[in-house]
């Protein structure tokens, strides 16, 4: 009896729905949407659970990157729109126009989630590539961003064409007339893409390189290379974003060559007071001959000068006709020997001590060599130790470092002047009584 009543109630309900086709179609659409959402949840669970099981295999460890970038999440989101798309024919009382519009709308959602899945796939491929050894020398982030931009542009064209029920070729033909506007809008993107290709193909820039570009305030390590910008973290921990095209149109200094060479250059001068430059005496020559770093030099130089002076005959008795060693030349030889014996100076690279053009600040002696390390802190320590020692050893050769007079020097000179004048004044005789 109850079953008959239920059956009769159902017949009455369907009969009422037949009298209201819009309500009938609306209920059918709601039921189809609920089924689509439930199938979407089920497909998402099955797909993700299955991929997690596959990712446990060592050969399929890359599936974990796809999961982290939600590639399969996006693919599972296509299921509801596909169910709606193919289930519209089963909805009763649905007009052809409504079915066609809803079918296009479902197709547009399918294309949208497919685009998102492709974008997530590109992100996953970028993560996989970042773990390879090639990622240290070649960055593909700019190419990935360009590919995503192209996918989004063409995807947007296809979605709009689907919604308005027109061919995508019609919209693409209209883009030809807008090419000038597109070139103007995407000028920086096109310039950056060409610059990114040139930088990567010519190996001019890598992530981790120390670059210096004073015109944009960049002096630090490259932390990211994208399609539009290159991010540089300065040594004061600030971040500078440089448009990629500027790295091709303007000059910048890349210190990678120095880091790869295994040595960092020291190039600094000692300014010797010209008034302290003189010949060394015989006693000084004997004393300096006992210095270990100068033993070979002094013996070789003494023999050379003696041979030259003997060849001059009697004229060598005059001081101006005789060659003698100078304190600045001897110090130059000592400094060179000191650098070559230093354990932290690179022996396979240029090492010299040269005298530069005399200036108003004295006679520059330039120290030119390379350290064994490229680490900044160690480099500064080695350089400081070398110059500390050379500055301290200058008086041993009778040389003085040039230094401009300071306020203290001027005050001391002014105070000493009256005392000097007083000491030079003649003693006054006592007056007659």
List the defining traits of the structure above:
433 residues; elongated; three-stranded antiparallel sheet; disordered C terminus; 8 strands; alpha+beta
Descriptive account of the structure:
It is elongated, with a radius of gyration of 43 Å. It contains 17 helices and eight strands. α5 packs antiparallel against α6, α6 packs antiparallel against α7 and α7 packs across α8 (168-177). The strands form two sheets. The protein has a five-stranded antiparallel sheet, with no helix packed on it. The chain has a three-stranded antiparallel sheet with strand order 6-8-7. It has 433 residues and is of the alpha+beta class. Helix content is 58%, strand content 11%.
What's the short story on this structure?
With 433 residues, this protein is an alpha+beta fold. It has helices at 2-19, 21-55, 63-68, 71-76, 78-87, 96-130, 141-163, 168-177, 179-185, 187-201, 246-249, 256-261, 282-288, 295-312, 327-341, 376-393, 407-424; strands spanning 210-213, 218-225, 229-234, 239-243, 253-254, 264-272, 352-355, 363-371. Helix 5 runs antiparallel to helix 6 and helix 6 runs antiparallel to helix 7.
Share of β-strand residues? 5-15%
List how many beta strands DSSP finds. 8
What is the overall pLDDT average? Answer: 81
Secondary-structure element string? HHHHHHHHHHEEEEHEHEHHHEEHH
Oligomer classification? single chain
Strand order of the largest sheet: 4-3-2-1-5
- Count, helices: 17
Shape category: elongated
Rounded to the nearest angstrom, the radius of gyration is 43 Å
Low-confidence stretches: 4-14, 429-433
Cα end-to-end separation = 165 Å
Structural class: alpha+beta
> What level of helicity do the residues show?
55-70%
């Amino acid at each position: 009896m109850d079953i008959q009543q239920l059956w009769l109630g159902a017949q009455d309900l369907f009969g009422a729905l037949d009298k209201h086709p819009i309500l009938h179609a609306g209920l059918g659409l709601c039921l189809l949407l609920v089924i689509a959402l439930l199938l979407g949840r089920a497909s998402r669970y099955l797909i993700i659970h299955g991929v997690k099981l596959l990712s446990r295999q060592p050969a399929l460890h890359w599936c974990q990157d796809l999961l982290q970038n939600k590639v399969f999440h996006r693919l599972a989101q296509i299921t509801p729109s596909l169910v709606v798309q193919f289930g519209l024919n089963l909805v009763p009382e649905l007009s052809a126009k409504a079915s066609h519009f809803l079918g296009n709308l479902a197709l547009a959602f399918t294309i949208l989630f497919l685009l998102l899945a492709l974008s997530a796939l590109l992100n996953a491929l970028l993560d996989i590539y970042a773990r390879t050894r090639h990622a240290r020398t070649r960055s593909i982030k700019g190419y990935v961003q360009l590919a995503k931009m192209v996918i989004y542009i063409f995807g947007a064209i296809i979605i709009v064409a689907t919604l308005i029920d027109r061919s995508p070729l019609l919209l693409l033909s209209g883009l030809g007339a807008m090419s000038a506007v597109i070139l103007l809008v995407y000028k920086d993107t096109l310039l950056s893409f060409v610059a990114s290709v040139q930088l990567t193909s010519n190996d001019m820039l890598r992530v981790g390189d120390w670059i210096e570009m004073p015109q944009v305030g960049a002096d630090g390590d490259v932390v990211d290379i994208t399609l539009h910008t290159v991010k540089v973290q300065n040594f004061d921990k600030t971040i500078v974003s440089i448009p990629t095209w500027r790295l091709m149109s303007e000059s910048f200094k890349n210190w990678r060559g120095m880091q790869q060479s295994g040595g960092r250059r020291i190039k600094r001068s000692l300014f010797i007071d010209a008034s302290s430059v003189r010949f060394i005496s015989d006693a000084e020559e004997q004393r300096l001959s006992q210095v270990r770093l100068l033993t070979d030099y002094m013996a070789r130089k003494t023999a050379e000068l003696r041979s030259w002076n003997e060849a001059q005959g009697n004229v060598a008795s005059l001081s101006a006709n005789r060659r003698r060693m100078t304190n600045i030349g001897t110090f130059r030889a000592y400094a060179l020997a000191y650098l070559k014996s230093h354990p932290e100076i690179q022996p396979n690279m240029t090492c010299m001590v040269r005298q530069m053009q005399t200036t108003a600040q004295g006679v520059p002696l330039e120290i030119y060599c390379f350290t064994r390390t490229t680490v900044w802190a160690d480099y500064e320590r080695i350089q400081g130790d070398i110059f500390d020692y050379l500055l301290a050893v200058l008086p041993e050769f009778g040389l003085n470092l040039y230094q401009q007079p300071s306020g203290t020097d001027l005050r001391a000179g002014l105070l000493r002047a009256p005392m000097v004048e007083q000491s030079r004044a003649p003693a006054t005789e006592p007056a007659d009584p």
